[in-house]
Amino acid sequence: MVQTRKTIVIIGLLFLCCTVLLTGCIEEKDSSSSPTFQDINQEPTLLYSLKDVIETQSRTVNNQTVSLIVQEGETITFDASESTDADGSIQQITWIVDYPGTIKEGVTVTHAYHPSFTTGNLYVTEIIVSITDDDGATVTESFLLGVLRTQVAYYLDTNTVTETSHGSSSISMKPSLGILHEIASKTLDFSSPVTLEPCSWNLSLLIERPRLCFLKQITVSLRNENDEVISESAWSQPLLSRWTEKTITFKGSLVSKQTIAKLSISMKGFSLKSLEIITGDSSSGVLFFEFTS
Predict the structure, then answer these.
(1) b vs e for 155-182, b when ≥16 Cβ sit within 10 Å of the residue's Cβ?
(2) 61 located within any domain
(3) Which of 148, 172, 196 is the last residue in one of the domains?
(4) pLDDT tens, residue by residue, 123-179
(5) Which entry of 37, 64, 149, 208 is 20 to 30 Å from 25 by CA?
(6) Residues 113, 114, 119, 123, Cα dihedral to 10°
(7) Are residues 157 and 275 in the same domain?
(8) What stretches of the chain show up as alpha helix (H) in DSSP?
(9) pLDDT digits over 91-108, tens only?
(10) CB-based burial of residue 267 (10 Å sphere; 0-12 exposed, 13-18 middle, 19+ buried)?
């Protein structure tokens, strides 16, 4: 009987020891597998701004929303200095300022846009900025940026208007006082029709005068493919006195998006011999389009 009691006591003690040991193991395992709050990395906060932007109102281009507009050739500053990391520090800031090839790094970077405009006067590119903290967490944002073309030039040649100068040449015109032939006209075709957003334009013509000549009016017209006038500028200051050459500037505007296919020049007056309009230098015979918005 005594031996039986001893056996029961020993078994009980062994059971108690095993329970304590197992409990400790379980508790130790649970403690090591539960992460603490400090072990969870917080993502950095990305804040950025652009300086020298001329327009912040978004516009839709080819079914895409363009967030910001900048001027062609202007230097733009990209600034992410307000970005923060609550539980560490920001280690890297990367900017793709003209997707996909132009990549820069730094808190602030600058870039001047000189894109190739294939259509219209607005070039659209994607901007991507990303920040990475000291734990390797990265936050990225992107938006579309538009570059507004400020000016485009077209050069008058003998019979055409092109985007490249063909060197020195001249356009001959001979108005007369006849009832049917008082106005002399010359039409130059664009090498390929050009579609432009609203803009202003100007054209200076250097005219060499022969003997026995006077002019009453000169008109420059921009025309579409149907030969309809879409913009026109006239000069009417009769030249009756002696002169050998004169530069006359014509100005106009496109109030809406237009496709230009032709440029025509008409002269009203009299000339015994042909007048010569000189083209091919840095100013005369160059048609400038200026974009402002």
Answers:
(1) bbbeeebeeebeeebbbebebeeeeeee
(2) yes
(3) 148
(4) 889 999 999 998 889 999 999 998 888 888 899 998 999 988 777 788 998 887 655
(5) 37
(6) -10
(7) yes
(8) 2-33
(9) 999 999 998 889 999 999
(10) buried
